[in-house]
Amino acid sequence: MRPSPARLLNILVPVKRAVDYSVKIRVNPQQTGIDTNVKHSMNPFDEIAVEEAIRMRERLPPGTVKHIKAISIGPPKALDVLRTALAVGADSAAHVALPENAPAPEPLAIAKTLASYINIQNSDPAKVEKDGKVDVVILGKQAIDDDLGVTGQMLAGLLGWGQATFASKVEVDVGKNEVVVTREIDGGAEEVRCRLPVVITTDLRLNEPRYASLPNIMKAKKKPVEKLSPSDLGIDYTPQLTTLRVTEPPKRVGGGKVGSVEELVERLKDAGITGV
């Protein structure tokens, strides 16, 4: 008989529905933000997070990873990215539903939502019995639409958990109750050792996400999706920041040729550039 693992892991993977990476971004006519009437998909860094959770299950002894749950905060269309996560291997999902035209939640509100969800999950005996306590959160280091890259750090702070950001390699030792993460830094790599529970944010070089097969896409439709509202978690999504205006960067102006160094210096002086 195979011995049971020293600890069962329950992984929560937050995913975001963002403008697809292949879309050319344009500012909307009102200059209040980008045009969102375009193709959307799962944020690429979150795809890597989902893949890493699945690979963690495959690498560790059978039964070590008890449950993988994806969670998304957004309008009804956010269900699309949850179904994608379920199709590639997540066991269940949770959707914190926002109105269709609601402004995108700010990172602190997202972190508070995730922290509230985890605290409720980990303190409810019925939920713990069903899915277990969340002890690993894996999410993308940033979203490609706002590029803020702070949600994971805020979440770890709110929970009082260890954090390992910009992960390019993740190794879990359930016997020692710890995780070792290799993270990219300027000029090399840094190895961080954290005790569980932990928040991990993923970098591009961590893995290459798999594609969902057609049979798994069909099976994903039968996997459970928990529906929640902001009031269920006690979260206020009122924006703390106001965007005054969004404009596209100025178009580059073509250069010109000069016949000599002297002419170049004169043109630089005419342009108001000193020190030449």
Descriptive overview:
There is one protein chain. The chain is built from eight helices and eleven strands. It is an alpha/beta fold and 276 residues long. The protein has one domain: Rossmann fold. The protein has a nine-stranded mixed β-sheet with strand order 9-8-7-10-6-1-4-5-11, with helices on both faces. A two-stranded antiparallel sheet has the order 2-3.
- What is the CATH superfamily? HUPs
DSSP strand tally: 11
Report how far apart the termini are.
Answer: 81 Å
Can you tell me the number of structural domains?
1
* Amount of beta strand: 25-35%
* CATH third-level topology: Rossmann fold
Query: Element order, helices and strands?
Result: EEEHEHEHHEHEEEEHEHH
Uncertain spans: none
CATH hierarchy: architecture: 3-Layer(aba) Sandwich
Number of helices: 8
- Residue share in helices? 25-40%
Mean pLDDT: 87
InterPro entries: ET-Flavoprotein_bsu_CS, ETF_a/b_N, ETF_b, ETF_beta_N, Rossmann-like_a/b/a_fold
GO molecular function, one term: electron transfer activity
Cofactor: AMP; FAD
Pfam families: ETF
